[in-house]
Amino acid sequence: MENFNWKPFVYGGMASIVAEFGTFPIDLTKTRLQVQGQSQYMEVRYRGMFHALFRIGKEEGIRALYSGISPALLRQASYGTIKIGTYNSLKRLFVSRPEDETMVLNVFCGVVSGVLSSSLANPTDVLKIRMQAQGSLLQGSMMSNFINIYQTEGTRGLWRGVIPTAQRAAIVVGVELPVYDITKKHLLGSGVMGDTVLTHFISSFACGLAGALASNPVDVVRTRMMNQRVLSGSPTYKGTLHGVMQTWRNEGFFALYKGFWPNWLRLGPWNIIFFITFEQLKKLPF
């Protein structure tokens, strides 16, 4: 324990909160677009990200663009802290220097840290998605809605969708963090670029695009599973594979990429804000 490094945990959580707040309205439109076509949301209200932003702001008010921000920030304070801290700590268990890292090692560490952090933070993710999807229909404070979900749906309600959430996190973290690290490593190794904001920008842009392409199908199913209320009877989506097949069969293959543009336009800026903030925090003299 004497070699334990607390900085990746603290800096990871702080940078995650900053990035989440800066990109939250885009994440809201992604959720609204993804639940369209689900049985209780058959009406196609939004034609795209910008149309969704405009319509939500006009019909529900500007504050509605931040529906679910409290659990989202709470989620990042827990998920981001555990994810980045675990990822960096695992890497240092295997190699002592960043120069010795390999893609295989980084992917393994990313998958493990993604599954662990997303599983622990799942209740905040459920509440965030409910508040984003239902907007003004979900009344009360964050804590009262937590209690309501627990009382009506039990502990399983708070961990609804935990398997696709963990699967998505395994994909996202297992792609994004290694892509960032390897891209940065090659940029620095080329001698053309130094450890600057531009290097962090290019690396984070690449990892955001890779993460969006890899994760969107699982993200669609995860969002729908978390948003469905199962009080009696069987759920519409019984698992990730079942959800993928149901969505594909009923709405076509490209339904699995619903919300891709806001997903990428969120993951891109989110990663850029996160990594630039994280890299600057690492330079603090303590």
From TrEMBL:
<keyword id="KW-0812">Transmembrane</keyword>
<dbReference type="InterPro" id="IPR002067">
    <property type="entry name" value="MCP"/>
</dbReference>
<dbReference type="InterPro" id="IPR023395">
    <property type="entry name" value="MCP_dom_sf"/>
</dbReference>
<keyword id="KW-1133">Transmembrane helix</keyword>
<dbReference type="GO" id="GO:0005743">
    <property type="term" value="C:mitochondrial inner membrane"/>
</dbReference>
<comment type="similarity">
    <text>Belongs to the mitochondrial carrier (TC 2.A.29) family.</text>
</comment>
<protein>
    <submittedName>
        <fullName>Solute carrier family 25 member 14</fullName>
    </submittedName>
</protein>
<feature type="repeat" description="Solcar">
    <location>
        <begin position="195"/>
        <end position="284"/>
    </location>
</feature>
<feature type="repeat" description="Solcar">
    <location>
        <begin position="101"/>
        <end position="186"/>
    </location>
</feature>
<dbReference type="Pfam" id="PF00153">
    <property type="entry name" value="Mito_carr"/>
</dbReference>
<keyword id="KW-0472">Membrane</keyword>
<keyword id="KW-0496">Mitochondrion</keyword>
<keyword id="KW-0677">Repeat</keyword>
<dbReference type="InterPro" id="IPR018108">
    <property type="entry name" value="MCP_transmembrane"/>
</dbReference>
<feature type="repeat" description="Solcar">
    <location>
        <begin position="7"/>
        <end position="93"/>
    </location>
</feature>
<dbReference type="InterPro" id="IPR050391">
    <property type="entry name" value="Mito_Metabolite_Transporter"/>
</dbReference>
<keyword id="KW-0999">Mitochondrion inner membrane</keyword>
<dbReference type="GO" id="GO:0022857">
    <property type="term" value="F:transmembrane transporter activity"/>
</dbReference>
<keyword id="KW-0813">Transport</keyword>
